[in-house]
Amino acid sequence: MSKILTFIMNYNKTIIFSIVAVIAALGVFTVLSRSRLADNSSVNLADLRANADSLAAEETEFDFGAISMSRGKVSHAFKIRNTGSGPIEIEKLYTSCMCTVAFFTQDSKRVGPFGMPGHGFVPPLRRTLVSGEEVIIEAIFDPAAHGPSGIGRIERVVYLEDENGVALQLGIRAMVEP
Q: Model's pTM, two decimal places?
């Protein structure tokens, strides 16, 4: 009986020691990870804030109001300007839903359509906007894309993403009717 008690006590000490060692290791890992993230995020946040302030839209939301599925697609053009002092690399243009596509127009050259990632190939945009340059992002919404289940209020987003992953969001809304 005493051998069993000794075994159990030693076994409990081993388990307790193992648990304490794992908790200590996790604590060290967490502290190191947080310090690395803090260092990286402070640099990245400064860059992101600078670029976020450099892309400006005359309007970031547009409401089509009531639209009919039977009348077909509707579109709206958003004017975007580089308000920063240097060039901005625009990497991606994409949408939040397969019922919406976007076109990019720069110097009278229209490229697209750009749609929702995961619903067909969405090519990279890779365009440079110099300081003060203005481009057009055209959002086209197809109210019939979802069929009868698509009736009612909709909200969709077009994303224009720079090289740092900062996305300017352009929203469209509508009340879809049959």
A: 0.68
